[in-house]
Amino acid sequence: MSRDEMSALQGKRLHKVVDYVYHHTPFYRKKMQELGLLPSDIQTIEDITKLPFTTKQDLRDNYPFGLQAAPMSEIIRVHASTGTTGNPTIVGYTRKDIDIWSECMARCMTAYGVTSDDIVSVAYGYGLFTGGLGAHYGIENLGAAVVPTGTGNTEKHVRLIRDLGITGIACTPSYALYLAETMDKMGITKDQIHLRVGAFGAEPWTENMRKEIQERLGLKGFNLYGLSEIMGPCVSYECECQHGSHVNEDHFYPEIIDPATLERLPNGKQGELVFTTLTKEGMPVLRYRTRDLCSLMEGECACGRTNVRMTPIMGRSDDMLIIRGINVFPSQVESVVLSEPEFAPRYLLVVDRVNNLDTLEVQVEVRQEIFTEKMETLGAIDALEKKLANKLKSVLSISAKVKIKAPNTIERSQGKSKFVIDKRVLK
Ligand code: ADP
Ligand code: ZN
């Protein structure tokens, strides 16, 4: 599609979605009224800058279905995004949403070179997380055979890859490395398997990781980007040129803003990625602030696709960590630590990657009042560590190793305190 045709389509769809949320989502009607905006003020895609932003906090404040536009009778699936403080984000999908999602996902798989002759295993998590089912439906839609392995039982997965002649895999890049590790342990080499395509996403990864995965699994690895608030995996994808990820911009309109001033930035400038859903019915969102930092690339791609590309995610404008695919905010750890009377408000998160699996260690100081040299011998430290670890697990949904420290032993930094050490070298 030419750029002019695309802009015209986007403008038409934007008007429609704005009119729809104005009449179906009190949250947006109120926001628009505050700005003195009517749906008729939004006619072209350029008008989008008149519209209000939406944040993750807005979704949490309106938990669970406050931003839902379609009636429950039309919702056929519900997903929830993980690991946020307080309420998770709930997203409901209508049948049309699921159809569009699987079409967009099929486009990604097509760009990776997957055809109906392929057998693809999905090792993203199945469940509330959008990764598993999102990839699953797209692969089915394309007509390839999907093997819904999910995560866990990696040795069995490796055997299936070998025995079934699986040719494609969809999973996080760190899981792909873990798979390679497991193959090594089992004594299975890449010559014994037929993997040729990997759809990797849900977390940031680097060219070095790509090289290592490709080398060890003998496949070509492609980026897959998405987020549950917008749809799930399928928002953007790499083509064979692997020069930026093409955005499915007929459904998800991207903008880059300066996170400090909220001004829209021109293509090529790095800033915060913002998406407006142009066709979604269940939970449409206007100008959703992803907190992901990247830039948009202008110009036609050598593959022939004309849709805009985004550069790899360079980081986030908040302090969210992605550990084993789960979103973790240091503030969540803080609130757990502070809710226990034994601990001082002094903690350190150490994130690392051991054998290609993310690990989280939480170091925390006990309060001076309760600290005695004898604590160790009495087993009190062990008990405290266990108690905190259990509590963290229930809040974060991932296991953390807790290390209790004597008072005043966690290093104080000059100026801004450092609460996180991320040792996962993303070079
Ligand atoms: P959750 O359910 O944990 O919220 P999401 O899939 O919605 O899971 O998380 C979306 C976030 O994951 C994105 O905003 C981004 O930070 C990260 N992410 C997803 N795909 C990629 C990718 N290909 N590269 C870098 N980061 C990614
Ligand atoms: Zn391309």
In short:
The chain is α/β, with parallel strands linked by helices. Helices cover 31% and strands 26% of the residues. The chain has a 9-stranded mixed sheet, sandwiched between helices. Strands 10-11-12-15 form a 4-stranded antiparallel sheet.
Description:
This protein is of the alpha/beta class and 427 residues long. It is 31% helix and 26% strand. It has 11 helices and 21 strands. The chain has a 9-stranded mixed β-sheet, sandwiched between helices. The chain has a 4-stranded antiparallel β-sheet with strand order 10-11-12-15. It has a 4-stranded mixed β-sheet with strand order 20-19-18-21. A hairpin with a 6-residue loop joins strand 8 and strand 9. Helix 1 crosses helix 2, helix 7 packs parallel to helix 8 and helix 9 packs across helix 11. The longest helix is centred in the N-terminal third of the chain and has 22 residues. The chain is globular. The two termini are 36 Å apart. It binds adenosine-5'-diphosphate and zinc ion.
